[in-house]
Design brief:
266 residues, mainly alpha, 0% strand, globular
Length: 266
Amino acid sequence: MNKINNQMNAALWMEIQKLRKAKIFPATIYFFAFIGIMMGFILYLTMHPEIAGRSATMQMKTSFISIVNWNAYYELLMQVAVTIMVIGSGVISSWVFGREFSDRTVKDLLALPVSRSSIVYSKLIVLLFWSLLLSLVILIAAMLTGFVIKIPDWNPEAFWPFFENYFLAAFMNILLITPVALVASAGRGYILPISYVILTMIFSQLLIVGLPSISYWIPWLLPAVLSGVAKSLSPTPGFMSYLLYAIVVIGSLAGTIIWWNRADQK
């Protein structure tokens, strides 16, 4: 047991050091903070339509917000949690797993005196905390911007249910990085997993609008359904929804571990 713990600690420390020295880490923090600020800016334009003037683009971006208050802002942020975070988590997952092949470091990694499973788990742990951090960055930036622009009807009691719902949706989206990890490993690079993430998101959005009755069976739509973003478009998830979601997450994790255990044979 001590040997397994030591291997896991060594692999995790190695991944943390890689992330600490990578330029992409601070870049993602700044980018997601910018997204949070832009969410507030959209609501600010809705509050002050005279600023948009005759810009058709600005008017289109603010036209879907009918009432300007914190509840409307929460709905906007929830949509971000189930869309932007899908792409964000997918892209960084593609980088963490795909970079080993693009940088030609996979052979050195496999030669280390640690188990292949430890390598996979350490990467996923880093991705989990990185993705949660990005979700928190968006939320903090958006909330601070909301206070700065003075969104009306602030209610602390309404914030905490939103907060719980926001991170539930974010966490369930983040767990769906395991299929991305499998695709990145099998595809040996960045391009295939990033394409997978984009296609999955487009496919899911089309299904929930065009065929909402079958969204019950799509694991990638479960976070959106639970968060309430889908509203009446989708039926209430049941046992099969959670079962299929678990099969995708756990099955992809197992597939990734199996692939890495046989990586030097491919």
